[in-house]
Amino acid sequence: MTVNVLVELSNRNIDKSFTYNVPKEFEEDIKVGVRVKVPFGKQKLEGFIIEINNSLQDDLKDIYEVVDKDVILTPELLELGKFIKEKTLCTLISAYQAMLPKALKAQNKTNIKKSYIKLIEINSINEDIKLNEKQKLIIDEIKKGNNRKDVLNKISPSSLNTLLNKNILKEVAIENYRLSGGNSIEYPRYKLNLEQQNAKDTILNSSDKVFLLHGVTGSGKTEVYMELIEEMLKEDKTAIVLVPEISLTPQMVERFKSRFQDEIAILHSRLSEGEKYDEYRKIAKGLVKIVIGARSAIFAPLNNIGIIIIDEEHTTTYKQESNPKYSAIDVAIKRIETNNAKLVLGSATPSLESYARTIAKKYHLVELKNRANNKPMPEVTIVDMNKEKKKGSYFSEILIEKIKEKLDRNEQIILLLNRRGYASFVTCSSCGYVSKCPNCDVTLTYHKSSDMERCHYCGYATKRHEVCPVCHEKSVKNLGVGTEKIEEELNKLFNARVIRMDFDTTSTKGAHEKIISAFRNHEYDILLGTQMIAKGLDFKDVTLVGVINADTSLMIPNFRSSEYTFQLLSQVAGRSGRSEKNGIVIIQTFNPEHYAIQLSKTQDYNMFFKQEMNIRKKLNYPPYCYLVSIKVISTEYEIVKNESSIIVKRLKDNLSNSLILGPSIGSTFKVKNTYRFGITIKYKKEDNLYPYLEKLLDYYKNNAKIKIDIDFNPIS
Length: 716
Fold this sequence. Notes:
Elements: E1 2-7, E2 17-21, E3 35-40, E4 43-53, E5 65-66, H1 75-88, H2 92-99, E6 116-122, H3 133-143, H4 149-152, H5 157-165, E7 169-175, H6 194-205, E8 210-215, H7 221-234, E9 238-242, H8 249-260, E10 264-267, H9 273-284, E11 290-293, E12 305-311, H10 328-339, E13 342-347, H11 352-359, E14 364-368, E15 379-384, H12 385-388, H13 397-408, E16 412-416, E17 425-428, E18 445-447, E19 452-454, E20 461-463, E21 476-479, H14 483-493, E22 498-501, H15 511-520, E23 526-529, E24 542-547, H16 561-573, E25 584-589, H17 595-602, H18 605-619, E26 626-634, H19 637-654, E27 658-664, E28 670-671, E29 674-683, H20 689-700, E30 707-712
Parallel strand pairs: 8-13, 8-14, 9-11, 9-12, 10-11, 12-13, 15-25, 16-23, 16-24, 22-23, 24-25
Antiparallel strand pairs: 1-2, 1-4, 3-4, 3-5, 6-7, 17-21, 18-19, 19-20, 26-29, 26-30, 27-29, 28-29
Helix pairs in contact: 1-2, 1-10, 6-7, 16-17, 17-18
């Protein structure tokens, strides 16, 4: 018997399997999709078996070891890897590695031990056997289901050992999964209103496979999701639910566990490696029916999938930005085709591409136009900060007034500023010096809590300069504002309990859950944060949402900046007044007349869609065309500059139906000591695109000085 084994080599551009003989003692354990250890030159490598042949070849080396008893890559995942390779031009091994937790990847060096619980079970008992009181108590506890050995030992270790030695009881060990445990919060079950019921019935009864559930914030989309999943479970089918932010996972999991108990597994990047390992194996063994998680949970090894739900489908986090650069939505569509399942994309502010597909009848549009409890949408006020800035405060008069009013009523407030740190940059008022990262073409952000200037691209950090390093004057100032600075100002202005939620305060394990739980329990009055607080969170006492600066996303150099701004403002506004009390929203901006900001006031998605689509059509941007981004990267400026120009010429010569833009340098021209030039391809139909880009990658794969990075339908 021989096997073809796919291994990951140090040169990631190589995608090749190698054939090995299988010694007799391993033949029973050989399956497609398991890992094996194989010789490769002087190395020992791990790889995946992708093919088995019955022949034996004398000139081949033997495999060393079969690593897995169970299949790691199911037949569906093996095919899915080929799909990702084809869609993104990545290597097949990188597609497979992206699907798996670290402990199950090929070449894994993480040794994770399984945890076991010792249980005591009744083996045989005869009425004639005389038992003392403690022995009777032990057996009674076992009959009640209290059969953990550590608990029974507390009654009497000697009595327990006697019963074990007489074979009246027996000891068994079962695996203890690290995230096992029930839900401590009980959520009420709501009866669907007429709109929700119609949405559920439409999705279940339609012959269509992909649905866009467009529901205003607070319309009860999550309740519809749970009802749909319940119907799938009745048919013995399984479900995947994706959420865009890890911060949303705890609240979603709590609601689902309240309904579905132990049928749920969780997959996201903030779990420990041991927890990911356990959750993945629980799913693969069929111990759960529902998987909830972030982007990578789309690869959960579930069988017989009935429905995939992608909540807040417009969010950019569903696109992987490192290789393989897959879209979770594309992968979901492939999986529902394989499983004859349904896909529900939910959002109050769908991406323009998704909504356009409903007009083209590629997606089935289902709408929830009202809040589930019939409460009105929050009242939104837009504040022109050009008139307020002379007062020298980051807070407008009306926002200060409303914060005081809500605090007096013991109500809660959410404040959004989509920029972390204390100051956006540090500059010298005498000579104009700006503190920049030595590795990247970006300014350093000042973080007061650590008194450090940090690069948010490469992680470089340095102590803040008190004296300008250029002119040596003591005139260094902090300009711009981040969440740290706003937190400081809030503590000066109000007698309130403030908690901050951004990348800096949520970098430790469990931080999201602690902050959300503490705010929900009203241990804090004000939740201040970046965009991670804008979506999906539901707090009954929040009646005021304030946006400190609505322009941060509007000013980014991206054709989607208006769309991102409208989505962010509409989503965060939806956090206000979700329960019994009415909500209000204050949006502070220096661009009060911009249509994205004006239309977020009324949350008029349809009008925004029409206006933005008109601009996209004139400029020929998605959804009126497809984009490919090519980055040409090198540590040597002249080489990358010259090679970029050569690539543009070759693209123009070979892609006759495409518009080639560039080469150009972006806002982050230098990152981690590498220079990058950008090339953009715009096309509607280009038969030669994929074949030529494959040739391009192949041409440069052995070039140590140039790296080519290709991204289809990039988000930035």
